Structures are given as C-alpha cells and as structure tokens.
Amino acid sequence: MAYEPYIRLGAFFIILIAMGVAETLWPRRVLDAPKAKRWFSNVGISFVSAGLVRLLLPLVPTVLALYCTEQGWGLLNILEVPYWFAFILSVLILDMLIYGQHVAFHYYPILWRLHRMHHADINIDASTGIRFHPIEIFLSMVIKLVSILVLGPPASAVLTFEVLLNGSAMFNHANVFIPIRTDATLRQFLVTPDMHRVHHSTHRREYNTNYGFCFPWWDRMFKTYTAQPAEGHTGMKIGLNIFRDSRYHGLFSMLRIPFL
C-alpha cells in the first residue's frame, strides 16, 4: 500500500480534469454563475477538508484495513471467506453504508445543517461532487473507519472503493450531456449525472431522493428513487432557496453555512 496516496490523488485529478473537459465540450445545462469562482471555492473547500481531516484523524482507511487483516479483526476476517468474495462484498457494503449515511445527513436536522453546504451550490457540475463541509468529511471518515473495524474488508477493496467513491461523485455531479438511451442503460449499473441531478433540485420531494453515489440499486431497494425531475433537466432549479445570494458562495462564507 506504499503507492496508495498516489493512486488516489492520481485518479482524483484525472477524473476531475476529464469531467471538467467533458462538461465544457458537451454541457447538459447552461450555468448561470461564474464557473471560475465556483471551481475555486469548491476545489478549495475540498483541499481544506482533506487537510483538516488528515490533521485531526491521521489514520488512512486502507492502512486500518490492512492492520485488521493482519490481526484477524472484523467479520470477514473472522469468517475467513474467500478473498474474491470478501472483495466484492466489501465494496458493495461500503457503498450501501455511504448511501445510508447520506440519508441520515438529510433526515437529522443537525446533520442537514452540515450537508446543506453541498446543496447550496446554485449550479451543479463536477466541482460540486467534492464540495463538502470539513465537519461532514470528518464525520464521514469516522463512520468509514468504524465500518472497516467491524467489517474487516481487504485493503485492496477499501482502496478500490475510495477511488470509486471519489470518481463517481465527480462523474454523477458533472454537467455533461449523455443521450437518453445511454443514460437509461448506464443507470442500471452506475449513478448517472441525470439521475443524481434530481437530488439537487430545490424541491424537497426531489432532493430527498436519489441518495446513491456509485451504485444505483440502493435507491430502488429502499424506495428513494425518482427517475426524472418534474420540471425537466434543463428547466429544474438547482440549490437551496435560502442560499441563492452570491455572498454565500465564497470559500469562507461556505464554511459558515452550517452556523447561519
């Protein structure tokens, strides 16, 4: 796992740049806010969050998973299941847990105050996929580490999941046009931009659906799936009505949103 940081960072930048290029060449919606300012704020908050979490909680999930394997900790290590089965099951369970965490951040008011910074973006593109408050990222990391202790997944599965989670978050937030038939096929296996965009609607009945990040099955399984927005993808309003003023979208103002 010596190359783990390089794999994660490399994948992060490659996917972010690729999605940025794709949504510039084939945009789904016309953005009505300055893109350069939004990207500076959204990418900036991502680095602030990553830095603070690493400072306050300097434990890497893949390293913890490797230690659990060596010590025989966690359900999968106790049961001694085949590696391939543990790998697949771990990726699926971790993704389902992120789905459940996402639901909780909408359901509980104190958690919603943190998560609403993500929803306050009045446009949606690849940079929105990395726009999360540092406190939310910290809590998410704690949940992830506890899950690894309980589950005991292979370190390679945790690394794969980390890359999938970050990559799919940038992909499904991207403002990129995908033909309807292609989207219908893709969303059987992945959360697509059109599927996740519904989640960023200003309408409560829509932003409380489509919680999935990578795999789309959990929303269908737990009855939180909405196929299309009522006003269409080009006509729907994105964001939160209480945070539409430009003063809420600078880097430092974004940090204050949970406390307003």
UniProtKB/TrEMBL annotation:
- Name the UniProt record assigns to this protein: Fatty acid hydroxylase superfamily protein
At the highest ranks, the source species' classification is: Bacteria, Pseudomonadati, Thermodesulfobacteriota, Desulfovibrionia, Desulfovibrionales
The organism named in the record is: Pseudodesulfovibrio profundus
Q: Which PANTHER family match?
A: STEROL DESATURASE
Q: Which Pfam families match?
A: FA_hydroxylase
Q: Which GO terms describe its biological process?
A: lipid biosynthetic process
Q: Under the cellular component aspect of Gene Ontology, which terms does the record hold?
A: membrane
Q: Which InterPro entries match?
A: Fatty_acid_hydroxylase, Sterol_Desaturase_Related
Residue ranges occupied by any Fatty acid hydroxylase domain in the UniProt entry: 87-224
Instruction: Provide any one GO MF term from the record.
Output: iron ion binding
Tell me the compartments it is located in.
Membrane
Which UniProt key words apply to this protein? Membrane, Transmembrane, Transmembrane helix
